[in-house]
Amino acid sequence: MGESVRKHSVTAVQMESVNGDIAANLEKATALVEEAAQRGAKLIVLPEFMPDI
Questions:
Q1: DSSP alpha helix (H) spans, 1-53
Q2: For a FRET experiment, which of 14, 18, 22, 49 has its CA 20 to 30 Å from that of 5?
Q3: With contact defined as beta carbons under 8 Å apart, do 22 and 53 qualify?
């Protein structure tokens, strides 16, 4: 049987969020996600702790 290999680009975003500043956190996260996507990432994971989001 032939084997099929697929390559995927995965990015884990590391960022420092500002407690209570939803707009700033979303702005920073959006910019980092867009950059990762432009570099070819197909799966982008954000930190589990983003205060007030």
A1: 22-38
A2: 14
A3: yes
> Which residues, at least 6 apart from 22, have a Cβ–Cβ distance to it below 8 Å?
52, 53
Q: Is the pLDDT of residue 51 over 90?
A: no
pTM over 0.85: no
The residue ranges of every structural domain in the chain are 1-53
pLDDT tens figures, 10-43: 999 999 888 888 888 899 999 999 999 999 999 9
* Angstrom distances, CA of residue 12 to CA of 1, 2, 3, 33, 44: 34, 32, 28, 10, 6
Coil, strand or helix: which one is 14? Answer: coil
Q: Whole-angstrom Cα distance, residue 28 to residue 20? A: 14
